[in-house]
């Protein structure tokens, strides 16, 4: 098989892969939490069933809704899917790897969030506006931290393209690097904020005082809601994949490797996703949700850590080249 | 070579992070705990330098840091806090966010300053000096942003942590000086303690803002 075709095939496999495992990963987080609370918990397939059910249901749209309200779910879904499909998961050197730029990725995810925030305000209910405003508050604090993390890794690896960063760390001998540890902590905090996970937002609640993401999408129903939910699941996959790709790229097939190496990469990728989802579940059980007004402090830690990471990277570069 | 550098860089970085934690914490006992952790990290860092640079007398410095600042001083301060009855106090003069941003600025400043001015020195010394200067400035920042006399003492002690860190990276600080610095810190603690209790006797509080009136700053 010619090389280009193989690369295209790999890219296609990855696009389908992230789409198919996304509900299962969210389901796994829920299942882990339920089991730790000694509940039975929904089976892993429940997330898929929910999506199918929502697609078949009638979609109710408010009278005051504009075209944006109808289009936004599909746009958010598409943007998030593109982001999740670009992050190297099981192999580097796929067809669209040249586009997997970390800064572009932040921009794509930011565009998805901005679209959803606009849609939240579109109908004109107070909940939607409240959710949008909170979501944007979190975003303005999380995004600088995320960009600083990206900057730290790019300075260390000499490239902003994710496959190159991943293969750089893959070829490095193991070493203790505090700047990377700080960047990892910062990225995890950002990921929790962006995915509306527990210390920042509770995805399982509809309590109006605390909700952020759920308030924003409260007006959606039917297939629109299915799209929004699928996008949220894909975003979780994207962030876990991003952390896995940047900080534990072990097992990922290098560029130009054949399908056998891919298979190995696939197994290790799935193992990483399962481990990430279970750790998230354990973390969520162990910690309480923060007040909304404390969220800036929490995200401030991410910013400080990311900034310290880049300062220390700079120091290391300056001292030992 | 790179591994030894990596580990000393890691420990120095942890010192820096714990300095930021000192600024971030607003509960007085948490500040004290963070200070103890910083002293323990310092002693590990010093012991590591003693091991890789083969300078056994640094082990004594490490032991002093661990014993005095990791255990004795936190214990004494803890008793002081409980006797003053301020162990539940939450204090904040300027906002955490603003103080942290100032801290970042100070850190960047000290890194740039040391890297520019010590271009000819060996890299371990530059590393130690750069982070030590940052820790010292952050300790001063802790003293500025706090109003409680006890947390100001902790800020002062963390300045001394920075001094020791800087001294281990650079060759040449004799053991006698280090020991005398360590014990003068201990003496300082006693002096501080006497002062704090005097302040409380006089003003019924350990909030140093009460002193402004005496100084004529408050209208």
* Main beta-sheet strand count, sense and barrel state of chain A: none
Shape of chain B: globular
Main sheet attributes: strand count, strand direction, barrel closure of chain B: none
Structural class computed from helices and strand pairing of chain A: mainly alpha
Estimate the global geometry of chain A from the Cα principal axes: globular
Structure characterization notes:
- The complex is a heterodimer of chains A (321) and B (219).
- Chain A is mostly helical.
- Chain A has a domain at 3-143 and 206-287.
- Helix content of chain A is 71%, strand content 0%.
- Chain A contains 11 helices and no strands.
- In chain A, helix 3 runs parallel beside helix 9 (222-247).
- The longest helix of chain A has 34 residues, at 3-36.
- The relative contact order of chain A is 0.17.
- The mean pLDDT of chain A is 90.
- By secondary structure, chain B is an all-alpha fold.
- Chain B has one domain.
- The longest helix of chain B has 29 residues, at 175-203.
- The radius of gyration of chain B is 18 Å and the shape is globular.
- The termini of chain B are far apart.
- The model of chain B has no long low-confidence stretch (mean pLDDT 85).
- Chain A binds chain B through residues 175-179, 181-182, 296-297, 300-301, 304-305, 307-308, 311-312, 314-316, 318-320, and chain B through 2-3, 5-7, 9-10, 13-14, 16-17, 20, 24, 96-97, 100, 103-104, 107-108, 111, 115, 123, 126-127, 130-131.
